[in-house]
Each structure stands twice: as C-alpha cells, then as structure tokens.
Amino acid sequence: MAKWQHYLRKRITRRFSSMLLLSLLLILAGAVFVLLSTIQILQKYELRSNEIRTKQELVAEIGDYSNEIILRARGYYVYLNQFEYKKMFEAKKGLEQSIADFKRLEFSEDEERLIAEIESFFTDYFDNLLPGAIALAEKGDYEGLRKFVPSGEENPVNELMLFSKEFEQNVQHIAANANDKLIRDLSFQGVLFIIYVCLVLLLSLYISRRVAIDIGQPLGQLAQQASQFGRGHVIHLEDLEREDELGELARSFNDMMVQIQAKEEELLAQNEELIAQQDELQAQQEELQQVVETLEENEVYLTNRNAFIQALANTLDKQELLDSIINNLVRFSDFDKGILVLLNTNNDYAANGVSAAAADGFIHSIGDSMVVRVTETLEPYKLVRDASDGERAYHEQDIQASDLYVPIVNGQQEVIAVLLLTRIGRTITKHEESEIVSLARQVSLALDKLEMYEETARQRQLTRDMINTIQEGIHFMDMQGETLEVNDKMADFFSFFQKGDQRSRFPLDKLLGELEENVTNTSGLTAFIKSIVAGDATASPSVQYEIKQPVHRYMQLYYEPLYRDGVQFGLLLVHRDITREYEVDRMKSEFVSTVSHELRTPLASVLGFAELLLHRELKPERQRKYIHTIHQEARRLTTLINDFLDLQRMESGKQTYIVEPVELTPLIREVVEIQRMGNEKHRFQMHLNNEACTVLGDQDKLRQVLTNLISNAVKYSPEGGEIGINCNVIRGKAILDIKDEGLGIPEDALPKLFNKFYRVDNSDRREIGGTGLGLAIVKEIINQHKGDITVVSEQGKGSTFTITMPLHVQEEHPADLETAGLIRDSAPTVMVVENDHNLSHMLRDELLTSGYRVELFTEGRHAIEQIQQIKPDVVVLDLMLESGTNGWDVIEHMKKSDLLINTPIIISSAFEEKDKASQWGIRDFLIKPYLPGMLSAAVQRALSK
C-alpha cells in the first residue's frame, strides 16, 4: 500500500487520473448492478407474461376445437356428410394436442379439474355417445337423437367456453398486476441508482477538493514568488523536496533564478556593445533606404515605359493609337496636358487636358507656331511662358508654364507628327526632355507600323474587292487539297462557303463531301480535283459539272498551279458559270430541231398539194380542198416565221411598241370572229363587261396575244368543247380570262410553260405540234404592257389563262366621232402602192369588199405623180418598190406637201422598221405576211383617227 501511495505521489496526473478512474468505476459498478437487476426483473416479467399468454391461447384452442367437434357432429347428424365427419376427427386430434400442451404448464386445481372433465367427456363422447348418435342419425330417428345427445348447462363444453371467457378476463387482470409490479420495481431501481450517483458525486467533489488544495496552493505560492523575483526581490522557495511536477517546477525555477542572476551582468556588458553596433547599423540603413528609393523610382520608370510601349503595340486603330500615346505620355511623364498632331492631310490629332476649341485653334495656326522650327531643325524646343488665366485657375500670383515641342521623325528623316506637352508651375529638366525624345522614337516606330498596316489593309482590301468583283468563283487550295480562301462569287455558287472574313478552312475530304450534296453526278468533278491535288500531269485541263442547289447552274472548272521561287505552293481553281452558254446551246439545238420540223412539215404539204394542182386534172371540190390545205399550211408558216422574228426582236431589244389607248372589247370580238371561221367543233362563250375596258398599249401586239391564247385554247381542245372568254374590270384593272375544256397542263410543267421552246412532253401534244414560242412571246408582250399573265390548269379538264392589265381612262371627243360617222357614210379612197402583183390584187379585193374605193399602183414614181390629183384618204404603202424609188421616197414627198401632210399612211412591209416610221409620225405598221382583214381594220382605225 505504501509503495502504491509513493507511486501516485510522484505525478499529479497519476493522482488525478486515479481519482477520476475510481469515480468512474464506482459509477460503472452502480450502473452494472442496476442494469443486471433490471434485466432480471424484466426476464421474470417476460416469463410470467409468456406463460399466461400461452395458457390463454391453449384454453382458447381447446374451446375452439371442442366447439368445432360439437358443430361438425351436429352437421353430420343433419346432412350425413363425410366431409363433416372427417373434419370432426381432425378437430379431435387438435383438441388432444392442445390438452397435452396445456398439461405441460402449471395450472390451478380448477384448471386441472376442468381439463379432466373435458378429457372424460370427449372420451365418453367418441367411445359411446358419438357411435350411438350416428346410428340414430343414419336411421333418421332425430327425436331419439335429441334425447340421446346431452345439452344445456350440463355439457362440459359449455363449461369450457365459460371458463375460457373467465380465464381471458383473469389473464388481463394478472397482466395488469404484473405491469404495475414491473413499474414499481423499475422505479425503485431508478431511485436507488440516483441515490448511488449522488453519493459518488459527493465523493468525487471531496477528492477534487483534496487535489485542488494539494496542487493549487503550491502553484499559487510559486506564482507569487515568481512575481516577486520579477520585481527584483530575493526569495526562498519551499516545496523543493516534493517528488511530483510541482517539486520539479520549483527546483527548475530555482535553477533558472540562479542562472538569470549569473548572466545578468554578462547581458549588461553585451548591451553596451550592441548600442554601439546599433548606431552603425542605423547609418547603413539610411544609406540602403536611399538606394531602395532610387531602385523604386527606376522600377516605376521602367514599368511606365514598358506600359507605354505595350500601349503602342496593343492597337492598330489610328485614333485609338493616338489617344493611347498622348494619354500615356501625359500620365507617365507627369505633364499636365498635351496634344499629338499628325502632319497629314486631315491633321488627325489626340489631346489630353486640352479642349476641342483649343486643339482646333492650335491645328489651324500650326503653320505660324513653333512647330515650324522643330520641323526644320528636327530637334525639340522648350518654351517657358506665363500661364494663361485658365491654367492659373484661382491662384493670384504669377505662374510659369513650360511647353515642350517634340518632332516625331520617321525613318526617312521626315517629320510626320508633332508632340506638344505642357507643365504648369514646374520646370522641365534636361533628363525629362531626353526621356521624351526617346519615347518619341518609339512613337515614330508605332506610327510607321500603323502606316504600314493601313497600306497593307488597303492593298488587301483592294485585292479582295478585285477578286470578289470577278464573276468567276476563285478557289485557292494548298498542296494537300485544303481550301484556304474563296471569293464571294464562290460563296454564291456553294452556300457551305461563308462570305466575308468568317470563312473557315475546308479539308479535302470535307470539301468533297459537301460537293456530293450540292453537285449532280460528282464522280467526274471529284476525280478531277483529286488528280490535280495529286499532281497528275495527265489530268484534263478543265471539267464541266452541274450544281443542283441552292441554284441550279452549269459550271466549268479549270485550274492553274501557283509557284513561288520556282516551287509550287498551291492551286488556283476557277469555277465559271456557263449556265447561259449552256442554255443558249440547248436553245440553239432546240431551235434548229424545231425549225427543221416545223418548217419542213408545212412546206412538204404546200409543195405536195401545189404539185398535184399543177400536174393533175382535179375536180373543183378536190382543188378547193387542196387550196384550203395550202392556205392553212401557209398561215402556219406565216405564224411560225412571225414568232421567230418576234423572238429575235425581243431578245435583241429592237421590238417597238406603238402605245395608244386600246379598247379590249371590240378587239376580243374581232379575234373570236376570226377563230370562229370554219370552226364547228368549239362553242365560243363571251362574257364582256359593259363598262369601258380600255388599256394603254400596242393594239397589234395585244391582238397577237389574244390570237395566240384563243388559238391555243382551240388547238389544245381537239375534241371540241366550250371556249370561255371573260373580260371584267376590277379595282382599276382589266381582268381577261380565257378558259378551255381541253387537254389541260401537268402540274410539273406549269413553272416552265412560258419558257422559250418549251413544250409539254406527251403524245397528245406532239400530234398537235407547235414551236413552244407562242406563250414566251405572250409573256414578253404582257410584261411590256405592265401586266401579268397566270395559268391554272388540271390535266384532262382544261386550262384557264388570266391576263391582268392596268386600265386607261380614255376621253371621248364628239367631233372625232362625228367625223368617223361621216367617213363611214362616204366612200373613202384608199391608195395602195404595192409592187407584188398577186398581193396587190388581193389587198385591192379586200378593200373593195369592205366598201372602199381603191387606187392601185405598183411603181412608186407613178404614185408620186398621181397622188396630188387623187387626194387619197388613206395611203397603204410598201417600203420595197422598184429600183430607184422606195416607200420612204413616197413618204418624204407626202410630208413635204401641205395638201398631203396629214394624210394617214399605213405601211405594209416585210421589214419591221417601226422606229423610222415613228420618226415620220406613222403609227400603223403591218408586217407581212398578215391576214387581209387586218388591212381593213387598220384602214378603219386610220380613218377614225
């Protein structure tokens, strides 16, 4: 025991830990005791509860089985069902098992008596009662059965059921008592534990107090003694003999005091030496401080200079660069304001601290300022002057301002800019002036770089503009086939190229993939590009291909290798749009094919029938039929030639239009009447607006449009049917519909219907024939009249062509109408000058039939001699007459005569020279060949005017 106490005294921590461990052990021992006793109480409670619960369940099972046996037996008595009989004996086995389980438990005398009665009852029941009852039931003697089977209160089963209910109530009461006892026992255990814990805590407090006194008191004394030692008092320590930490601390403190006293004198000596060294270090520190300040100034200067140089290199925008230069110079060089002016045409400038008005004034007077001197000497110039009122601000005393003019000189020793810096109230040192001159050289380099960049940009933009202006697609590739650059035209051809500066490079594989999506049958194009990239010397110089999207085009591709210093570095591919040339070739082929077919076919008929008429004697009916056929074929040839000539004039821009007010209603009737002649298969239904339907245009051209559309309606209705012509006025426009019930037009052919030489490709239309020019001419004429033509069609059900033209309001002149009436009542004289004998007689017969007097001349000179005497009302004149005199001579003679100057002239010629006729004031021009009725109509119009 003494050894154990000695062991604990050597360390405070051991004592404190042992006391703490003792407290914990006591608490743990109490807790273990409480826990074990609680577990024991709970186990007893659990065993008692399980026993009661099991007994209750067994009693309930015995009652259930007993009741089931009785019920199954009664069911068997009634129904004699084997199922009930079988279930009864199964219940018997369950009853016997439950009774056996119940006997293994502890039970009271009443329970023992009840179980014995049940066993006895059911033994007697199954041995004696049940067989007898079954025999009576099988005999059907239910009266004897009621007497034989016991019932009422004497039945042990009833007693069992009553006991089961009473036992359940007793079990609940016993369980409640057990719960109350459990709570009382647990509460008692808790109170005991609390009391035990309180005792342990009191013991712990007592032990803690003893430890605090044993440790705290010596520590307080030691602290007090240390404080006295710090104030220089001599002290004597106690507790030096203790073996624990306090003893060690006291002994260590005592040794420390001895050492401190021993070294105090040594430190005093060293302190004197350190004071001397401190004075020396202070002097060195002041010297180092000056060096650091110099280094900091140099660092700031280098930082500012580096930032200034970086600012010069950060932009290539002229104004941004000038602003950056002047702002950084004023800020880094510690000037108050400044301005930088370029000596170019625009005198571009940037200023800092200078108003716009002052800057403009300086620039306007730059030729009379010190700038002249610095540009001549190429040296900076410093000017000291009195500060202006604005620079002096609110200061009343005089202030000096210093201006520094610095020239900016380029590599050719030319002054390209002038820098003016101003400092107010402070002077500019020589060092600062040299620094500004040094910075001016950097500014010069930056301005030279800017000028070079602008010149390069101008050249690059000029080159780009030139390349983009070219109508061919320019495509630049390197030797690996990667696309480096394309022009805007190439981007128009292929939408996957981007316009402008946002173009991305295309590797060869990506380019070929894009071409496959945009080009028809890319095998030839792909092989060509791969061969030239591979450097195949046998490759073809060019290739043709077809673009299918975004715009259908026919293209030709050729290339040129690019060399630099004799080494090939790229390929220049040129994509030329040959769509127009391709279409011209195609149209030329179609034109030749059409002409060869359309001219030869009617000519063969004309020649064949003419030969029959010349060499054979035919009956009059047969002759009339052949002549009619020749007439039809001649008209067909005439229409074809007129279409070709009209097309040629339209494409060459030589087609002329005589614009005048034209009434559509009579014009429609005239064309319809012509189409009705000899046409019995078609019914013409006209619905013409009663209002005036007048348009401004060329009457002959509009007649040609109507004739073409109505004849097409007849021609493409080979089975006959109704031809509807409707003319209405809607919102200031004339709407003309021409509808047939013929073959109709396929939907895919509608967009191409008005193209030249286009014909719908099917057997029905090939049998009808045609050049494919009529609708193209109609479209051109309507466009020239500022109108529009559309078509709606359904194949097999007919087509409807709709013409829309702006109306023209025409004023009626009563005097003209009266004159027209007088002319119709008289017999006007028409002078016909025509050198073709057959045609002249045909024209004469037509005019005589129309009620006119006709004077016929075949020579121009005879007509000139007789015209003054005849005084014709209208002159019909051919331009090609005998040699020496032509139609223009006759016209000139008439225009020089006061009597004939206003005589209407109708030119009948195979040469279309309407422009020259218009110069003579002639507007009626009939182009041969034409129908004779057209001449009568032209004469009527001329007399009406």
Fraction of residues in helix? 55-70%
What structural class is derived from the secondary structure elements?
Answer: alpha+beta
- Largest sheet, described in full? 6 strands, antiparallel
| Arithmetic mean of pLDDT | 80
- End-to-end separation: 159 Å
- The CATH architecture of the largest domain would be Up-down Bundle
Number of domains: 5
Q: How much strand content do the residues show?
A: 15-25%
- Reading side by side through the largest sheet, how are the strands ordered? 7-6-11-10-9-8
Question: Which fold does the CATH topology of the largest domain refer to?
Answer: Four Helix Bundle (Hemerythrin (Met), subunit A)
Q: Please give the count of helices.
A: 27
CATH class wording of the largest domain? Mainly Alpha
Which overall shape is indicated by the principal axes computed on the Cα atoms?
flat
Low-confidence stretches: 810-825
Give me the Rg, rounded.
66 Å
Strand elements, count: 23
How would you describe what is shown here?
The chain has 945 residues and is of the alpha+beta class. It folds into five domains: 15-198, Four Helix Bundle (Hemerythrin (Met), subunit A), CATH 1.20.120.1730; 314-453, GAF domain (Beta-Lactamase); 470-577, PAS domain (Beta-Lactamase, 2-Layer Sandwich); 657-806, Histidine kinase-like ATPase, C-terminal domain (Heat Shock Protein 90, 2-Layer Sandwich); 814-944, Rossmann fold (3-Layer(aba) Sandwich). It is built from 27 helices and 23 strands. The chain has a six-stranded antiparallel beta sheet with strand order 7-6-11-10-9-8, sandwiched between helices. β4 and β5 (415-424) form a beta hairpin. α2 (12-79) runs antiparallel to α3 (82-103), α4 packs antiparallel against α6 (156-230) and α16 packs antiparallel against α17. The longest helix is centred in the N-terminal third of the chain and has 75 residues, at 156-230. The chain is flat.
